[in-house]
Fold each of these.
Amino acid sequence: MEWKGRRQSDNIEDRRGDPSMGGLGRGGGFSFPSGGGMGRRGGGLSIGTIIFLVVIYLIFKAMGIDLLQVLDGGMTTGGPGYEQNESGGQTPANDEMTAFVRTVLAETEDTWNGIFQSMGRQYEEPRLVLFSGQTQSACGFASAATGPFYCPSDHKVYLDTAFFSQLSRQFGASGDFAEAYVVAHEVGHHVQNLLGILPKFNQARQRMSEAEANKMSVRVELQADCLAGIWGKFTDQKGILEAGDLEEALNAAQQIGDDTLQKRSQGYVVPESFNHGTSEQRARWFKRGFDSGQLTACDTLSGPV
């Protein structure tokens, strides 16, 4: 993917290095599955221990001592090769990954601004939050384990900066267009939100059983894959894509299918628990959007998927 030298979006919030944390769990967001939620882990801290640590932290904070900075080695200013971000944290200067995300986001802006204009509507560009480890969203607490996700309440995409490495190492889905597909999928959820699809789904699933909500979630996620494919089509028409890029995205879609993730994590699949779609479905719907470039081709809400 020939992305270097192209326009970069300004709709980025860089929260990497932000020591603030909080929240009681993420809810209402639409995530790109990372497989981190499979199974239960033991050995966590008790509620009492967590409360005690929070109280200690607040006491020291009131005294003007930031324990997080102390534990991190007492660094309060950035050294050579680092720059201060808006939240006061430190991020690597000349970060190629940040430039890449800014460029991909700009390409989605160009695509959806044009499509919405052709429909006589104005596209509201989403903001993309880069974070490391954990952050807070209007949909609740976000962590690296949730994977990238879109929060319809604040119209923001959340992306942990380590996810692309995980995508390559853990899922075997390497390549810049595979990474671009991740961003385009979450922007697809934003498009659904603007079109009124997500609000209707959120209202409807309150009256659904868990099994019914999962089935509807699959349809919503597959549509986001198809919308990402539409973006891919317009990007290809600009001559940005290189040989093998489409295959990178299709491989990524296959590697994060519910069936593949469950087989990898637990050795068997539970179709009733699928909420993003199978590997075959995800790749097929991305390809459908890529081949057609038309919103009408992405009707996953009616008929078979």
Amino acid sequence: MLSAKSLFTEILDNDDSFRLFCSIAASGESQGGWENARIAALVPEGERDLAPKITRHGADEDKHGRIFNALMKKRGLDPVPVPPDTDYTMLLERNGIGLAHDKLKADQPLTVRDIVTYLSHSRVTEQRASEQMELLRKHFADHPDLGRAVKMISNDEDNHLAYCHEELLRFAHAGHGRDIQRILRECALAEIRVYRDVSLAVMAHMGRILGWPKAKSAVLAAGIHAVYAYERAAGWRRMVSLKMPERRDALGGPATAAPEFA
């Protein structure tokens, strides 16, 4: 029977597919680390209290990248180049999600509107990250190699999502509510398209590595299209709602250290 657990197990048990999976994940996390570090450095004067939280967010992302690289190293594997059609973060930027890299590479302070945009985009992408890690945690929390990594990253992603909710509600109460809802909706609709395209590309690459028959690849592709159809019809709404999280001030402290993988 084809299930999420059996699919992930097949990918994780093969060195070549595992290496591609970890390389894609590490690249995306490292990119997120750089983006958050630049945003923290350019926070406008009136929002400097946010800078430590944005820095913590970036440090967590960097840590996740190191974890995925360490998982490869433990199996004696080196990272591989990330195929462009699987580069989630690059494709998000091309679709206008996140602050433009040209802006982040400059030394001009960001505006409050920029910070609202960053938080709105993060709220959408962190929803996806939290759900993906929860799925891995459900099936692999007790895995001898992946368990600690999955639980740590899942907890961090939940913190990031809580932080986005709390800060966006603060900005909404300060008069930015209409902008936030517009940006959230635009971002969510763009993200679900990117996620569909990246999912199809990743499964195509994995299928070639693992020698999947055409029928299996077709079933997986149909499932990805079905998820997109649901998200396009109604599922995107879960990405735009805001509520005060149970985890308050989730990024108020220092980042936790990455676990050692002997």
